[in-house]
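Shall we go through a protein fold together, starting from nothing but its sequence? Label the sequence line and the structure token line clearly, so we can match residues to local backbone shapes. Would you write everything just below, so we can both look at the same thing?
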Amino acid sequence: MPQITTEIKKNYSIGRFTAMACPCEILLESAEPALITYIAKLAYQEAKRIEEKFSRYRKDNVIYQINHSGGRAITVDNETALMFDFANQCYELSDGKFDITSGILRKIWKFDGGNNIPSKQQVEKIKPHISWEKVSWENPVITLPANMEVDLGGIGKEYAVDSTVNILKQHTQHSFLVNFGGDIGCPKPRENNTPWVIGVDDPKHTGENSAGRITLFQGGLATSGDARRYLLKDGVRYSHILDPQTGYPVPDAPRSVSVIANTCLEAGMLSTFAMLQGKAAADFLEAQNVKFWCIP
């Protein structure tokens, strides 16, 4: 049975569970115990479904099959094809900086707060195994060269948020908010056209202090940053946002970027794109004409 807990407030309720290696919660503008239990269960089921289907940690899903194909062509289902189409779009829009084959860099970069920086030789050895351009993707067939990997972790959680929102709004007319580890979706405002109010984590004191508040009437909210995943050596902080073209963390990246967009997937794409811009992150987001919060 899923480990779901619920909490009833005066005018809303909360359902909590863990999925995709992060805390998840559903805030529902209703204080009906039976309804939040039902809604939270639906959310849990969808989050786990997507986790099991796309996680690179499993050995029984399509990602494992592709990553162990040895260069053979693999035909994927419609949902997986949708993910690869979006990943391809992100690669093109980011001039190759958003690359789902770059997850292999985790083999040498361990963002655990320590000071172990890979050598130049380690980076150069792994770079030839990175580049979406080396992958043949002709929907619905993907051919991945041997010794390369695809990793949908950079878009999977945001996709799960949007998918869960679409399911839940079929089961309740109340406003609700889906929060999967800080990636958030909301289909409509609360009663009297009021927003949900969301705290912005202070990256210098993560989990303890709030750096401000964001009001979300509807749409998606995503945050990228290095509060919990970084390296620190000789006074230099290395963000976990890696440039696949260099094999190194993006220099001068903001500590945190939060973006509001029509969907969580779109917000996540823009927040990651901004981090990849380094010190030009805020200028990039200004040009996109979206609401954002950037902490340098």
